[in-house]
Amino acid sequence: MILVVAEQRDGCLNPVSWETVAAAQQMRDVVKIVVAGSAIDGVAGELAGAAVSEVLVVEHSDLESYTPDGFVEALSQVVRMEEPDLVLCAHTYQTRDYAPKLAAKLDKVLIPDCIGSKMEEGVRLLIRPMFQGKFVADIHPDGATPHFVSMQVGACRADSVVRGSAPAEIRAVPVEMGSGLIRQRPDAPFKEAKQAVDLTQAEKIVAVGRGIKGEEQLPIAQELAKALGAELAASRPICDSGWLPMDRQIGSSGQTVAPKLYVALGISGAIQHLVGMKGAKTIVAINKDADAPIFEVSDYGIIGDLFEIVPALITALNEK
Question: Do the domain assignments include residue 224?
Answer without folding.
Answer: yes
